[in-house]
Write a structure and sequence with these properties.
By secondary structure, the protein is mainly α. The chain has one domain (3-104). The chain is 76% helix and 0% strand. It is built from 4 helices and no strands. The chain has helices at 3-23, 30-50, 56-77, 85-104. Helix 1 packs across helix 3.
Length: 110
């Protein structure tokens, strides 16, 4: 399977797990708490498969960065959190970093 498809699925799984973490209210709600375990478990499994084909720096950098951006977006859209200009600039810089890591840099598998 395409390693970038696996990495995308890992990121989506992490976003699911993190959203469930917020909804679990300190693991006091069973269903969202189970979602945390499933989401993070699947995310780590998929990342491990991705690491068979791509360098660890590219995989982890992309996974962490897009996880940050995704969770920030979920916070804004789902939980009504506010974003200010420095936060928006920070997110934009993270996205530029992912672009450079995956497209411009020779670290990734082109």
């Amino acid at each position: 399977m395409n390693p970038y498809a696996l990495l995308t699925a890992a990121i989506v799984s992490e976003l699911f797990g993190t959203t469930c973490l917020k909804l679990s209210e300190g693991f006091s709600k069973p269903l969202p708490s189970a979602g945390v375990v499933v989401g993070y478990g699947l995310a780590f499994y998929l990342v491990s498969l991705t690491l068979e084909d791509l360098p660890v720096g590219v995989v982890y950098g992309t996974w962490a960065a897009l996880g940050i951006v995704g969770v920030a977006a979920i916070g804004i859209v789902v939980f009504g959190e506010q974003v200010d200009m420095p936060g928006a600039v920070g997110v934009a810089l993270i996205l530029v970093g992912v672009y450079f890591l995956n497209v411009v840099s020779e670290m990734s598998a082109h």
